[in-house]
Amino acid sequence: MSEFDLSAFPVGHTTMVQLGAYVSIVSLIWWLEWRTFAGSLRSKWKHSTVNLLFMASALPIQIGTSLIAIQVGNWTEAHQWGLLPLLPGSSSLWVQFGLMLLMFDFLDYIYHSTVHRAPFLWRFHLVHHSDLALDVSTTVREHPGDTVFRNSFMLFCFFMSGASVEALLMWQIAAALSNLLAHTPFRLPYWPNRVIGWIFITPNLHHVHHHFRQPYTDRNYGNVFSLWDRLFGTLTSLPRGGTVFGVDTHMDAALTGSYARMMAAPLRRAPESAA
To answer: Using the 8-state DSSP alphabet, how is residue 257 labeled?
Structure first.
């Protein structure tokens, strides 16, 4: 049996292991945030509860997509379907994993930038951006509609790529870890951020993306790598003191702190953005 062979596991076993590891890491980071910034536990828990409700809403979609992806990956591998089998040296792990990691991250960049430009899709995605106090729980603050659109796009790309389930799993792990770290209130010192930020998205860079006004909201789209933002001219920076989290059309804490009202937000016409 191959070291990376998932066929020996029951369908969904890998998904549940991923979920368990994800929840454990989120819990650890959440605790470190509380201990480091010495805020009120009650206040932090109240803020996180709203975001966890969004996670609970999107979780069945996420699990369902993962189970479908396993079946899709098994089918494409059995039928040698997609882009990967056509590439020279497709049996190489460097091609299977390295190239697929870059490709999936690039496609995620394309999707993310599109969501910000398409008014209908932005209505759902702004729920994520509407959090006025960024912490690790913001990572899971995602409208179920946003989850459906994103997962459908990535599932289609996975099908067309012909990549293995293991390659997809590797990208999901890298993307999840990068996402979790990017949404924490921790920031890197100037020089480490400059060095690491040449290759990867850092919390400092992603905080800019959550600034409440343009043009910063439409910058730093990258998930794992900052390469795509550099190539397409969407990379920028802001100091901690100059960053205000949220969306300028939804700065009312009574609105953004309400799960029910934010679930309904995509169905209402948003007010015009400020400058």
So the answer is: T
Alpha-carbon separation of residue 112 from 76, 84, 120, 189 (angstroms): 26, 24, 13, 27
12 phi and psi, to 5 degrees?
Answer: 95, -15
pLDDT tens for 67-96 read 999 999 999 999 999 999 898 888 888 888
SS3 at position 243: coil
Domain regions of the chain by residue span: 13-267
Q: How many CB atoms lie within 10 A of CB 76?
A: 21
> In this structure, how many other beta carbons lie within 10 angstroms of the beta carbon of residue 40?
10
Neighbours of 270 (CB within 10 A): 14
Residues 111-159 have pLDDT tens digits of 999 999 999 999 999 999 999 999 999 999 999 999 999 999 999 999 9
Q: What is the pTM of this model?
A: 0.90
Q: Any idea what DSSP says for residue 126?
A: H
DSSP, residue by residue, 22-88: HHHHHHHHHHHHHHHH---HHHHHHHHHHHHHHHHHHHHHHHHHHHHHHHHHHHHHHHT-SSGGGST
- Distance, in Å, from the CA atom of 163 to the CA atom of 184, rounded to the nearest integer, reads 31
**Is 42 within 8 Å of 129 (Cβ atoms)?**
no
